[in-house]
Design brief:
mainly alpha; Methane Monooxygenase Hydroxylase, Chain G, domain 1; 3 helices; 91 residues
Length: 91
């Protein structure tokens, strides 16, 4: 249990930060799910728009420290590869 005021404040800050980070992580997952749905539907135009949104959201999470930079880059790279594969199949 926190005994001094600084430790109590740290607990409050951590609780707020955890809530914000959870929301950000959830938001990233939502955009990734939208991209997955667009890929499953096979619609290249919708998938490209969803990819741009997902990439933006992932990089925002990276900049906020919610996701490790390498993880964000890896996910974006894999999404781009899947989008490219869909484009090539459609062409």
């Amino acid at each position: 249990m926190a005994n001094n005021p600084g430790a109590k404040k740290a607990i409050r800050k951590i609780a707020r930060r955890t809530e914000v980070n959870t929301a950000r992580r959830s938001r990233v997952r939502t955009f990734l799910r939208k991209f997955e749905d667009a890929l499953a539907a096979g619609d290249a135009a919708v998938a490209k728009a969803a990819f741009i949104e997902a990439q933006s959201e992932l990089m925002r999470a990276v900049s906020k420290g919610v996701v490790h930079p390498n993880t964000g880059s890896r996910k974006v790279s894999r999404l781009a590869a899947r989008l490219k594969k869909l484009d090539q199949a459609a062409a």
